[in-house]
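Example 9 (inverse folding). The structure is encoded as follows.
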């Protein structure tokens, strides 16, 4: 009889513990993209990125202009004043310049992507740290990315809590459609 009572007591305590653990699990979600775009650091990064892309474009335009000038020299009637060796050298230089332009164009895309990642990495880190802090403060066990959810209750969106923590002005949300 004592064994039955003991087993029953253990089973009941396990059920209570399981129930209390289940009651402590809280879920939330956030749109990380919306959070990051609302951060003032993102606007500064966008400006820096635009400046960087303009500098790359200017560099490419300078190369293209130089190529165009050399090409027009070789296409004009003035080529008669050059020797055959000079013309070959100028054509080789023109081909090298063209290759340099194509290589730069590919490198510029890679450089722009690298610069973008470099500018956004600290912003993303700050956003994630703020999300983690808000989740901890408010007892959320799990925080999901909103864009990856199909169904979610509006009350569990923590974006305004995170914005408040970051000192971002909270704007009224657009009405749901």
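The amino acid assigned to each position is listed next.
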């Amino acid at each position: 009889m004592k064994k039955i009572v003991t087993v029953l007591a253990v089973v009941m305590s396990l059920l209570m513990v399981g129930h209390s653990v289940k009651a402590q699990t809280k879920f939330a979600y956030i749109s990380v993209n919306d959070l990051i775009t609302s951060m003032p650091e993102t606007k500064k990064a966008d400006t820096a990125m635009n400046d960087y892309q303009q500098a790359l474009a200017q560099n490419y335009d300078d190369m293209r202009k130089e190529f165009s000038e050399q090409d027009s020299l070789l296409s004009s009637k003035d080529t008669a004043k050059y020797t055959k060796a000079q013309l070959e050298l100028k054509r080789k230089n023109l081909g090298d310049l063209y290759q340099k332009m194509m290589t730069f164009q590919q490198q510029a895309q890679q450089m722009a992507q690298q610069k973008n990642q470099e500018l956004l990495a600290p912003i993303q880190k700050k956003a994630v740290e703020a999300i983690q802090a808000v989740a901890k403060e408010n007892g959320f066990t799990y925080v999901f990315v909103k864009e990856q959810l199909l169904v979610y209750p509006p009350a569990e969106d923590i974006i305004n809590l995170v914005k408040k923590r970051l000192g971002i002005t909270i704007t009224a949300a657009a009405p749901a459609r």
